[in-house]
Amino acid sequence: MPIYEFSCTSCGTVHERLLPMSQREIFGKENSCECGGDLKNKITAPAHTPSGWGDMTGRHGVNGYFSKGLGAYVDSKKAEEKIMRSRGFIPESDLPKHYWEDETSRRVDVAVATDKYTAQYKDLLASGKTKEEAIAETFSTERIMSGELEKVWGTKRKDTTSTITGDLL
User: Fold this and answer.
1) What integer best gives the mean pLDDT of the chain?
2) Can you give the pLDDT at residue 144?
3) CA-based angle 28:32:34, to the nearest 5?
């Protein structure tokens, strides 16, 4: 929560209050100074913080920090994000809410489905089927046409059949 300053229009006394942003305008209208004067919201500069403005390199003997994402020292968070964007990285702050939880869940589902197909393929081989028969049965035309296999292995591969059979052999 930010700290807001209010000044009395009568005596000039400055009052500081820790308030939610939604209460800023309401506080000045609903409250008054001890002298009875009205409170007017003061415009103040934002805080000079290391995360948004840099880490004050040199002021306190600090020379930036080590960015694990870049594997190098950087002067500030803004500098780190600028370098990351130039290298094609997406900062975590740009990702949708719950991205990691959703992505992890999706990858677990894919791993479970992959294991299911692999087990079916191995079971068919164990029952005496040839590799070609096991592949044809595991990765049937119906599964391909329904899109069931695309959900597991995606559509980015050029030669899906050889990639799938190569992974399982």
Assistant:
1) 79
2) 86
3) 145
